[in-house]
Amino acid sequence: xxxxxxxxxxxxxxxxxxxxxxxxxxxxxxxxxxxxxxxxxxxxxxxxxxxxxxxxxxxxxxxxxxxxxxxxxxxxxxxxxxxxxxxxxxxxxxxxxxxxxxxxxxxxxxxxxxxxxxxxxxxxxxxxxxxxxxxxxxxxxxxxxxxxxxxxxxxxxxxxxxxxxxxxxxxxxxxxxxxxxxxxxxxxxxxxxxxxxxxx
Length: 200
What we know:
200 residues; mainly alpha; 9 helices; globular
């Protein structure tokens, strides 16, 4: 491709494709330059560094992911919305492993605040959870519960770590059922409650 055709957006899109092919951690400016048939130095007119490229990729992938989630949850509420959200999340994570890995990096909060995709992610996620009657700080706690459950499950599934004969999809559906019950019966107050003393 002609060097004149390089832009930050085209480089980011190519990096996203490369991430899915070779893994997010293996995306480099050198590999990207080879894909475009240019020298590494040619990329610095468009991206400042590898970290800059990774952040751009994270924002791109985050936007793609929330677009799919938003389409899935539209018109739904409660358990139906939760299941649709979870399924769209899992589908994206398994279909685009490199892009998905990019969404897990820490991005500067000022960039998050300026990103329409990241704001939309928060709006859709928190909106779904408010349907369960949650308010802060319980909302943030619930978001962390969902994120850690979804991410942990997808990470294990993507590496074939679930070895039991039980169907992986069936276990996923039961996990969503359990999350729904947890959200619908969320302990209110947001404060740590001491565990009851166990008789000795």
